[in-house]
Each structure stands twice: as structure tokens, then as C-alpha cells.
Write a structure and sequence with these properties.
With 158 residues, the protein is an all-beta fold. The chain has a four-stranded antiparallel β-sheet, with no helix packed on it. A four-stranded antiparallel β-sheet has the order 3-2-5-6, with no helix packed on it. Helices cover 0% and strands 43% of the residues. 22% of the residues are buried. The chain contains no helices and eight strands. It has one domain: C2 domain (Immunoglobulin-like, Sandwich). It starts with 19 loop residues before the first strand and ends in a 14-residue tail after the last strand. Pfam families: C2. GO terms for molecular function: lipid binding. This is C2 domain-containing protein.
């Protein structure tokens, strides 16, 4: 049996050092949350699901606000993003139905790639897109160069 002495197994894997973007999302509140004609039967119990497929642990949700047309959440969530990929936030406004399946009021998509760093951006989304239900979110994105994904460089570990 012969071995290739020119083969170095430690050279097979190359690691690229990239900074991790940190996204803070604050779900401020909603206005005029409605299920349409179903409001005559039951006042909405809304909650919001946030999904970013490209982020680790990229699914979060707010607490359910019982019988609330104008919910105030003021809940903050943190996501870790890879700046080298196309990051999109998928928001799904839901109505909690106790004892049966929850109902989707609407959903919206938002591209996170154009957010300015270190600035708070406030944006309102409507559910469905042409509907009356409105949810306000605040976004803040920043890079922390000390939190590299793959590094053992002592300068960045301080």
C-alpha cells in the first residue's frame, strides 16, 4: 500500500472569515387587525410569526394578544445573518383559534439587504397586502467584527 505524501488533509477545507450581521427586530404593534366578516363572531387574537430562512434559529413569534384589534407587542428579536447571502424576512400575521387551527390573516416579505447599518428603520406592513390590518416593525442591523464565524485570531477574540 502506498500513500500520497503530497496530500495534506488539513488543506482540504478552506475557511472564509466573514463578519456576522446582527439584526434586531422590534415588533411595535398593530392597528385595525381584522379577519373581515369573522370579526362579528369573534374579536381577533393576533400574533406575528417572523421567519428568516437563511438565519440560524430563524423562526420567532410574538405573544398572542387576546381580543385585541390594536395590539401593542413591543417585543424584540435578534437574528444572526450572513451578509454574503440574500436575507429576506417573511412575516405572517396569525389569528389564534383556541380548540382549532390558527387562521392566517396575511403575510408579507421584506428584503433585509438594503438596511443601512447602525440606523433604526421603522416600517409598516399591511396584511393582506391591500388590506386594512397594519403592523409596525423597527429594524436595526450592525456588524460585530469581534464575532467572526470561524476564527482563532487573538486580535478578534479580545
Amino acid at each position: 500500500m502506498t500513500f500520497n505524501t503530497g496530500f495534506d488533509p488539513y488543506q482540504v477545507f478552506e475557511v472564509e472569515h466573514r463578519s456576522c450581521k446582527i439584526l434586531n427586530v422590534k415588533v411595535v404593534g398593530g392597528r385595525n387587525i381584522t379577519k373581515g366578516w369573522m370579526d362579528y363572531v369573534d374579536t381577533p387574537d393576533p400574533y406575528l410569526i417572523l421567519r428568516i430562512k437563511t438565519a440560524p434559529e430563524g423562526r420567532r413569534r410574538t405573544k398572542t394578544k387576546d381580543n385585541e384589534v390594536n395590539p401593542v407587542w413591543n417585543e424584540e428579536f435578534t437574528f444572526f445573518l450572513d451578509g454574503a447571502v440574500d436575507n429576506k424576512l417573511h412575516m405572517i400575521l396569525m389569528e389564534a383559534n383556541y380548540g382549532s387551527l390558527d387562521q392566517t390573516i396575511g403575510d408579507a416579505w421584506y428584503s433585509l439587504n438594503d438596511l443601512p447599518p447602525n440606523e433604526v428603520v421603522t416600517k409598516s406592513f399591511f396584511f393582506p397586502k391591500d388590506g386594512k390590518s397594519e403592523v409596525e416593525l423597527e429594524f436595526r442591523i450592525h456588524e460585530d467584527f469581534r464575532q467572526f464565524r470561524y476564527t482563532h485570531d487573538p486580535l478578534f477574540m479580545q
